[in-house]
Amino acid sequence: MLYKYGRPPYFAAKPLGFALLGVLFLTLLPFASLGEAAPTGYLAYAVNGFDENLGRFDWNLYTTAIKGTKDLRAIPLNLKGMYPSWGPNGDTLYFIQRDAGHSNVYSINPENPKNKKLITPSAGTYRFLSVSPNGKKLAFNGWTINQLPQENQIWVLDIETGEMEVMTQVPHQGWPYSFWGMSWSPNSKRLAFSLSRPGWLEHLYLLDVETKEIEILTELHKDFYPVWAPDGQRILFLRWNREFDTFCTIDIETKTIEALFDVDKATGYWADWSPEGNYIAYSRWGSIYLYDFATDETEVVVEVDGSVFVIAWLRDGELLPVEPQEKLVTTWGNLKRKND
C-alpha cells in the first residue's frame, strides 16, 4: 500500500521556511524495517527543555517532516506553546500558550511562526486542544479567568466567529474534575474525551457536539488520552496498569478493546495516528516512536534533548466514519437508551 494524500499540505509544495530556523537534532529512521510502505506527513509536538534561541526551559513547539527519507529532523519553531493541533490544510497550527498565569489559544502559519494570532476571546486555564477535521471548530477543556477551577468543562470555539460554547455540565461537587485528553471524530460531529470520576478512575466518553449528549465508552479502569482513528471506527487510548501502561484501541460500535503494547509508566504521554491509520506515533521521554500495525514493530524516529509531550500528525483527505446505530447516553446521573 502506498501512502497518498488527497492534496499536499500547504507548505509541502515549496521549500520549507522551517529550514531557515535551523536544525537542532537529527536522527536516522530505518524505514525498511517498518513494513513495505513508509509513512508520510508532518508531526508537531511540544518539548520541555532548554531552547537555545528562547534562552529558557519551557514547553516549546517543534515539527518534523516525514517524507520517506532516513533523515528526520526536529525543527524548532522558536515559539513557546503546548497542545499543538494542525488545521486540516497544514497551513495553520493551533496551540495553547501560557503567560502570566493564564493561557490562550493561538494559531500560526508554520512558515512564519512569529506572526501568531490570538484565537480565544477570553484568557483562562485551557488544556487538551483539538481541531475538528473540517477546520471549523476548536475543542479544549478548562475555565476562563472569570471562573473557578471547579468549573472546568469542555468548550467548543467556532473559528470563524470566535464564539466559545460550553459543551458539558459535569457536576464538580466543590472540587474540579480533570479531563485527560480530547479528540474529534473524523466527521467533526463528536468528541472523545477522558474524565476523572469518583474513585480516582478515568473513563472514556463520547460527546455529540450538536445535542450535547454523552455516551459512556469505558468504565472501571483508568483510561486516558483518547485519539480517534482516521477510519472513525476505533479510538486509541492509554490504559493505566500497576506496572505498565498499555496502549489499546476500542471499537466504537462493539466496544471491543484490543491491547497493543505496554509502555513504561508516565513516559508514553501522547500518541496520534498516521493519516491512513497504519501507524501511530507516540512519545517516551525525549523520543518519538512509530508503531507499525502490520508488523507490530516499533522504531525511534526523532530524539530530542528534553521531554516530548503531545504529538499531532497532520492528516489530509476525507474519510467517512462508520457510526454506531445505538448508543448509551448519560446526562451525569440519568441513564437512558436512545435510538438514532
If you had to describe this structure to a student in words, what would you say it looks like?
By secondary structure, the protein is mainly β. The chain has a single domain, classed as Neuraminidase (6 Propeller). The chain has no helices and 27 strands. It has strands spanning 25-28, 40-51, 56-67, 71-80, 82-86, 93-99, 102-109, 112-118, 124-131, 137-144, 153-158, 164-166, 179-184, 190-197, 201-208, 214-216, 223-228, 234-240, 244-251, 257-264, 271-273, 279-284, 287-292, 297-303, 307-313, 326-330, 335-339. Strands 13-14-15-16-26-27 form a six-stranded antiparallel beta sheet, with no helix packed on it. Strand 2 (40-51) and strand 3 (56-67) form a beta hairpin. The model is unreliable at 1-35 and 317-340 (pLDDT under 50).
Q: How would you summarize the topology of this molecule?
A:
Layout: E1 25-28, E2 40-51, E3 56-67, E4 71-80, E5 82-86, E6 93-99, E7 102-109, E8 112-118, E9 124-131, E10 137-144, E11 153-158, E12 164-166, E13 179-184, E14 190-197, E15 201-208, E16 214-216, E17 223-228, E18 234-240, E19 244-251, E20 257-264, E21 271-273, E22 279-284, E23 287-292, E24 297-303, E25 307-313, E26 326-330, E27 335-339
Antiparallel strand pairs: 1-4, 2-3, 2-25, 3-4, 5-6, 6-7, 7-8, 9-10, 10-11, 11-12, 13-14, 14-15, 15-16, 16-26, 17-18, 18-19, 19-20, 21-22, 22-23, 23-24, 26-27
